[in-house]
Amino acid sequence: MAELAAPIPASRRRAGVLRRPVSLRGVLAMCGAVVLALEIGMAIGAPWVAPSSPLAQDLASRLKPPGWVDAAGTRHWLGTDTLGRDVLSRVIFGSRVSLVVGCASVMISAPLGLATGMTSAYYGRALDAVLMRIADVQLAFPLILLVIAIVAVVGPSLLNLILVLGISGWVIYARVVRSETITLRAKEFTEAARAQGASDGRIIFRHILPNTISSVVVLATATVAYMILLESSLSFLGLGVQPPTPSWGGMVSEGRNYVSLAWWLSVFPGVGIFVTVLAVNFIGDRMRDVLDPHLTL
């Protein structure tokens, strides 16, 4: 009976999920992975993929529609903007900003929230009370408003944007990890390790951390999409990456006054944001299926 009640090892559980028939969610995740891989390749190879410089201006060619061919025979597949710059080139280079901000900010907030939540739950008492009250205070403010206030003080730049988003996003990780650590701290295997004289560090890194990392990975995947949306929103408001550096949010902002005259200025960078966020969410849904610690066969 004890064997029947024992939990299924994580490796067997994940292998069992991967052996299941391909579902719609799996197909969407594969499509999302392909799209995201193409975008990452496009961002890395932007100087070679983009047909022209994203900063090259030609006022005589401003606001030309998609597919327009200039006097030199160069085709502008997505048209030109208000300064005659090639929209396709700016969309390609703008993908760099969104992907870098989304991934880098999560790489800051995830470890910070993981360490805070695990420390708070494991040692408890006064430390837990102090850290969670700090988290409560931050949660009282909408994240977008908090980020806007901080960026307005420290100044808009790519580095400041990454640091502000990374440091501001630790709370959700801390809450999730704290909840799981409290549960794991009371499990039999943790009590057995403590009874055998294992140190706190060994218990945390050998027994608790491996059982919480899957939730953090799934949460981080979803958070990347949210950070991309935040970066685009801040750039739209003029608090993100500053011109002339291309960013999708900034391009949408630049084209909002020309929607009836030159719809392509806002539509194509908006499509870039939509496709990227959708692809990341599809991948996140599939990762939740594979890594969900509560998933049973």
List keywords for this structure.
297 residues, MetI-like fold, mainly alpha, disordered N terminus, elongated, two-stranded antiparallel ribbon
Structural notes for this entry:
The chain is mostly helical and 297 residues long. It contains 13 helices and two strands; from the N terminus they run H-H-H-H-E-E-H-H-H-H-H-H-H-H-H. The chain has helices at 2-5, 10-18, 24-44, 46-49, 87-123, 125-139, 143-154, 158-168, 170-185, 188-195, 200-236, 248-255, 264-291; strands at 68-69, 75-76. A two-stranded antiparallel sheet has the order 1-2. Strand 1 and strand 2 form a beta hairpin. The longest helix is centred in the middle third of the chain and has 37 residues, at 87-123. The protein is elongated, with a radius of gyration of 23 Å. The two termini are 18 Å apart.
Topology overview:
Layout: H1 2-5, H2 10-18, H3 24-44, H4 46-49, E1 68-69, E2 75-76, H5 87-123, H6 125-139, H7 143-154, H8 158-168, H9 170-185, H10 188-195, H11 200-236, H12 248-255, H13 264-291
Antiparallel strand pairs: 1-2
Helix pairs in contact: 3-5, 3-13, 5-6, 5-8, 5-9, 5-11, 5-13, 7-8, 9-11, 10-11, 11-12, 11-13, 12-13
